[in-house]
Specification:
- It is a single chain.
- With 347 residues, the protein is α+β, with helices and mostly antiparallel strands.
- The chain folds into two domains: 105 residues, Phosphorylase Kinase, domain 1; 197 residues, Orthogonal Bundle (Transferase(Phosphotransferase), domain 1), CATH 1.10.510.
- The chain contains eleven helices and eight strands.
- The strands form two sheets. Strands 1-2-3-4-6-5 form a six-stranded antiparallel β-sheet. Strands 7-8 form a two-stranded antiparallel sheet.
- Helix 3 packs antiparallel against helix 7, helix 3 runs antiparallel to helix 10 and helix 7 packs antiparallel against helix 9.
- The chain is globular, with a radius of gyration of 20 Å.
Length: 347
């Protein structure tokens, strides 16, 4: 959800964009909702998400070199399941990038606030994300940090964010030395070996963990002790008791220890679409009808998720209207709670 910017400060600009509200923050940077300063808008679909490096951090040339390389890779990726890169400023005093804004909650927030998704929605979610991964892998790019917080749920379907670029922002030093990069609870065994061991099948493993979370509200490697989580991932010891039985066979394939035994992303999309008997499909299209989108072509989100999508869209519209009218962004109220999220389970 959106957070108001600190009060008492003038409007802030990054490149050609005016920041409207804060979307989130990480170890090295922040993400803001923004629009072009020369074209104020209240249309969320014309807004962008601007990610900036923290101003108090020193940025060396190694960072900029890696950042440019990740930007170049991101520009090759396009498709309905990926939030596209719109603009970037690698040579700015504080490097930044702007991606398509998706008016909707993250999968993490949606599950925390509304509970696990019904089977039909999980199938549709997984198939869409698998197709997005297939497109990413097709241009020789890996996501490397696929987790519920990096999946945004828009009205038309889910979108992946932070592929590749996340490394430049959050782990330049780590990836350059081959150390672990990933999110506990959603890493693959190859992540534990080091960055250079990660392959396309690693993203499929992570997607299996994400779908298990979506279906049950609990990561498949959840444990109260982080060391135990890492140990279980290293041996691919999954806990899928909370996952509906019709989804387990395909998720078990994704979560196998040997990367060669996992389905490629395109095959996984077919399995989840219901074009293979192994996944226990319920009908001709492999969906059980529990999702909320009954109209042809509508994405089958349940009602709770659709409400969150509408909430995000209206919050973005409100800050856009305020900025276009000349209101000070710092005077805007906080428009929604920031939901705390455990990387391994809903608590």
């Amino acid at each position: 959800m959106l957070e108001a910017l600190p009060q008492g400060r003038p409007p802030r600009f990054v490149g050609p964009y005016r920041l409207l509200a804060r979307l989130g923050a990480g170890g090295m940077g922040e993400v803001h909702l923004a629009c072009r300063a020369d074209a104020p808008t209240a249309d969320p679909h014309r807004m962008v998400a601007v990610k900036t490096v923290r101003e108090d951090l020193e940025v060396d040339e190694d960072f900029r070199t890696r950042f440019r390389r990740e930007i170049a890779a991101a520009r090759t990726v396009d498709g309905p399941g990926v939030a596209r890169l719109v603009d970037a400023g690698p040579d700015a005093p504080s490097p930044w990038l702007a991606t398509e804004y998706v008016p909707g909650p993250s999968l993490a927030e949606a599950v925390v606030r509304t509970g696990p998704l019904p089977v039909g929605a999980v199938r549709a979610l997984g198939a869409a994300l698998a197709r997005a991964l297939a497109a990413v892998h097709g241009v020789k790019v890996l996501h490397r940090d696929l987790k519920p917080a990096n999946v945004l749920l828009g009205a038309a379907g889910p979108k992946l964010i932070d592929f590749g670029i996340a490394q430049a922002f959050e782990a330049t030093a780590l990836t350059s030395t081959g150390l672990v990069v990933g999110s506990p609870g959603f890493m693959s065994p190859e992540h534990l070996v080091g960055s250079r061991a990660v392959v396309p099948a690693s993203d499929v493993f992570c997607l299996g963990a994400v779908l298990a979370f979506a279906a049950s509200g609990r990561g498949p490697f959840h444990d109260d002790e982080m060391a135990a989580v890492i140990y279980r991932i290293s041996r691919a010891e999954t806990e899928l008791d909370g996952v509906p039985g019709e989804l387990r066979p395909v998720l078990e394939r994704c979560l196998r220890l040997d990367p060669g035994e996992r389905p490629p992303a395109a095959e996984l999309a077919a399995l989840l679409d219901g074009r293979d008997g192994e996944d226990g499909r319920d009908g001709e299209d492999g969906r059980d009808g529990e999702g909320g989108g009954g109209a042809p072509g509508a994405f089958p989100w349940p009602g709770g998720v659709l409400s969150l999508v509408a909430e995000c869209r209206e919050a973005a519209r409100a800050v856009g209207e305020a900025a276009a009218s000349g209101a000070g962004v710092a005077d805007l109220p906080t428009l929604g709670p920031v939901v705390p999220y455990s990387p391994t389970a809903v608590t």
